[in-house]
Design a protein that fits this description.
Blueprint lengths: L2 H18 L24 E4 L1 E3 L6 E3 L10 E3 H11 L3 H5 L11 E5 L6 E7 L2 H11 L3 H24 L16 H14 L4 E6 L3 E7 L5 E6 L11
Antiparallel strand pairs: 1-4, 2-3, 5-6, 7-8, 8-9
Helix pairs in contact: 5-6
Length: about 230
């Protein structure tokens, strides 16, 4: 167990012991009082609700469940909690299993209608809001989910027709940096509404066409035309 975890465990044990004392009961002798968490001589003890990730320095609001004031006993332990919830690459890669500390964010808000829902422990408010938005039944949230599914479905067909899956359909994958990404961007624009159809010539390879069917699906087509011109006498 790390030093931060030992400090936190001792702090919480002290709080639990204080809350268990019944009113009117004489306090225990001084030599039997719970010792405060071990800290460095120059480390301030208090209630810290703002911590910094040890890797990227980003600040996070942190809450210690069961602690008076809702904060961590030292800035060091608050920083450790912030590091546990930070989504920077270094923090994610070096994250250790949570030991005895529950995530504080359990309520999220739909980004469209603002409806609040309990969604269980989440590492950040942003993550909780995202979960609520994914399950909210408001019209805007349902429309957003339908568009996302439409884009995912059409982009899958783009990869089947023009990407690595093209060979299964008797075609060659198209060459050129960014070509597939461009076609995927086109279907996204069609799904979101700025354009209703598109046709692109992929130089020396094929033609790509995109349109919306009567059922609201995005149709992806690939066509190849071969021609041969012969002069007289050839």
């Amino acid at each position: 167990m790390s030093q931060e975890e030992r400090d936190l465990s001792a702090y919480l044990e002290g709080i639990a012991a204080a809350e268990d004392d019944s009113p009117g009961e004489e306090p225990p002798p001084e030599d039997s009082e719970a010792e405060p968490p071990a800290v460095q001589e120059d480390e301030e003890v208090g209630s810290f609700t703002l911590g910094k990730c040890n890797y990227c320095g980003r600040e996070w609001g942190v809450t210690l469940e069961g602690a008076k004031g809702g904060g961590y006993p030292t800035q060091k332990t608050a920083n450790a909690a912030a590091t546990r919830v930070c989504d920077c690459p270094e923090a994610v890669e070096n994250r250790k299993p949570e030991i005895g500390v529950a995530f504080a964010v359990t309520t999220g808000a739909c980004r469209y209608c603002g409806q609040l829902q309990e969604v269980g422990p989440h590492p950040s408010q942003t993550a909780a809001d995202e979960t609520v938005t994914e399950v909210c039944s408001c019209p805007s949230a349902r429309t957003a989910r339908r568009i996302a599914e439409q884009i995912e479905d059409a982009q899958s067909r783009v990869n089947r027709l023009f990407g690595e899956g093209a060979e299964d359909l008797g075609f060659k994958p198209i060459a050129g940096d960014g070509a597939i990404e461009l076609l995927e961007r086109v279907v996204e624009l069609i799904a979101r509404g700025p354009i209703s159809s598109a046709s692109l010539n992929i130089r020396g390879q094929c033609k790509a066409k995109f349109s919306i069917t009567s059922k609201g699906k995005i149709k992806v087509s690939r066509s190849e035309t071969r021609s041969c011109d012969l002069e007289a006498g050839e």
